Each structure stands twice: as structure tokens, then as C-alpha cells.
């Protein structure tokens, strides 16, 4: 005891020992979360989220933020696009685009493959844009010939494409759409809502000529919800800088945020509004796994494709039918399935929950009660040893058997 009084650091040694033990953090048992976001999160990411409180002006935090900016670019294969990492959800990306890139009464074109394109259109409209929509049949994408005709009819300031519309699990071929826009209307900015696709689908921002990629932390990026991630090409930034009217937003203004992002990238802190400090540590942990981990980015995309193909095939063998009309427009990070004849949502979703598997119901208004949705992004797809897909496959087969038996 006397030694402890003389040398208080001895007192803390056992505490430090236990603190280092907690690095082998393991999550409490919980129901398997297989909705299309938020998704299951790796232990290391949750542990990083529990980082001790830090000043957002400290050098340690600034360098963590800088890492996030650089690695965000890496995931999108971009050399010089500008990431904006701001507290908010995916929807806040819509606000940023609508408020910063569109001036009142400018024309925008929205490619609509479901509920989330409707939302983006609504947001653009709220900021004063004149919005035209090209709407696909349910389960399909907008025809290239219709896009070309629309671009030839009118000069659009920007076009929005929802990469994966989470309401239908429809995947749009952004590479081909971007090629078409660049050829027919080179000044039209190409905005990709990639909330449900970053890190589960390949996006080559520079090579494909995409101007804005907007996303959020809670899906393929494998981080808890709360971080809005918007990445803007240098060309789009110039368009923003050359606006003829002032920006009509405060918190979403890139004028406010650009110097902050630039400072953090130099590993120097700067302040406009308090960043979500712990989430930045969590995001850095996830980005480190994604960009520097044992699985390369390309292999990550392949793992999502493989998981998706197997699960869709299995579900179809049970009698479910995919909402996307063909394989080439099917997302790889999620699946939307129509119920077999005679089966309804209440036969399936609650019963899966009882088996500790959480899935999502339908949200596309035209087919809402006819289908349900399963997310298989991030660790669920990339770490098959977790057994997530085995668990849902077994639970789904058993649930369907029970539902059929109960109707006899
Ligand atoms: C494609 C798409 N866009 C936008 C959003 C909105 O994101 P958030 O719910 O994080 O605001 C979502 C949410 O699921 C989405 O899937």
C-alpha cells in the first residue's frame, strides 16, 4: 500500500491491463440484422465507436478525419474529388446537392426506379428546382433511349441516378448512363445516389465521369448510422463556385464546409459545426478494413455478387420471386422478394424475427404488401464464416414451411 502511495502509477497498472483486454471486444448476442441498412457492424468498428471523448480540435482527431477523407476517395477510385463528411443521414446528401448545385427554376432530370428517387425529386423540388422524372416499370431501369431523348429535348443542370433503389433492389448501370450523358449533354452534372451501393457495388467515380456520389455510413460502409458522405468532382465544385445566386442553406452550405474538409485533410482541425467525433473513429476503422484489409476492394465486390447470386437462387428455389426483372438489374448488396402465392408479409417477417433474423418489409407504394427485403452487405457478405446467410436461408425455408402448413 505504501508503495502505491509513493508510486500512484502502480495503482493504474491493473486498470490499463483490463483496458487492453477490452480491445478484444465482442458484441452482446443480438438478433441478426439483415435489413438493407443499417447493417451488422464489425467488432472493431463498434469498439472504435466507443473511443474515449476527444476534442474535435485535437491533432489526433484531425488526423483520423484526414484518414477518412483520403480513404473515402480510395473506395470510389477518385484522385481529386472532394469528400464532405458531415453529421447527418443519407437524406442530407440530397439536401446538399439540391441546395448547392441547383439554383431556383433550373431544370433537373430524375431517373426513377422507386421510392428513393421519388424522395430525391421531392427534395430538389423543395429547393426550387424544376424536376422532370423518367419512371421505370417496377423492377426495371429507365430505358437508355428515353434518357437520350429527354436530354436532347431539354438542357438539364443535373441528372440524378439512384444506383440501387433500396425499395426495389434495382441496380442501375451507372457506367453506361454516365457515358450516355457525357456524350449527349456533357455539361449536365451526373449525381449518383449511392446510399445503398458504396462498398457493395463498384463505382469508378473519375473513370466513369460521375460528378457527385452521395452516401451514408450505415450500409455497405459498415459503420453505425449518422454520417452523411458526399463526394464532389472538381467540375461540380466549379459549377458551385460559379453560382449566380447565393446558397439558401446554412448547415448544408459547401462554402462553410469546404475549408473545414480541406483543413482536416491537412490533418489540421477547423470548426464550423461539431463533427460526430466517435462516428469518425468508427468510420476510420471500417474504411481501414475495407481499403487496407485482407480482402481487396475488387474481391469485396465479388463477394457481394457471389452472396447475392446464391441467396437469390435459393429463395427462388423456395418459390419467392425477385422484384428486379432481370439479373443484370439486380443489386448485389440486397434482395427484394415477392411472396409466393397465398403467402403474405405477416406469415414471413414476424416469424423470421422469432428466429432472431430481422428483415425489412416492402416500401414501394405500388407493391408494398407483396414483397419483403433482405440486406446482405458488409461483413455479412465478406465474412461467410459468420454464417449470416446460412442462418437466414435456414430460417426462411423453415418459416415458409410453417406458413404453408398453417394454411392447410
Ligand atoms: C438509395 C437511398 N437513398 C437515400 C436514402 C436515405 O438515407 P437515410 O435513411 O440515411 O436518410 C436511403 C435510405 O435507405 C436509400 O436507400
UniProtKB/TrEMBL annotation:
Its EC number is 2.6.1.44. The modification N6-(pyridoxal phosphate)lysine is found at residue 219. Its cofactor is pyridoxal 5'-phosphate. Residues 46-366 form the Aminotransferase class V domain. The keyword Iron does not apply. GO terms for biological process: glycine biosynthetic process, by transamination of glyoxylate. This is alanine--glyoxylate transaminase. Keywords: Aminotransferase, Pyridoxal phosphate, Transferase. The keyword Transferase applies. It comes from the Eukaryota. It is an enzyme of class 2 (transferase). InterPro entries: Aminotrans_V_dom, Aminotrans_V_PyrdxlP_BS, PyrdxlP-dep_Trfase, PyrdxlP-dep_Trfase_major, PyrdxlP-dep_Trfase_small, SP_NH2Trfase/AEP_transaminase. Belongs to the class-V pyridoxal-phosphate-dependent aminotransferase family. GO terms for molecular function: alanine-glyoxylate transaminase activity; L-serine-pyruvate transaminase activity. It comes from Boletus edulis BED1. Pfam families: Aminotran_5 (PF00266). One of its GO terms (cellular component) is peroxisome. The lineage of its organism: Eukaryota, Fungi, Dikarya, Basidiomycota, Agaricomycotina. Substrate binds at residue 373.
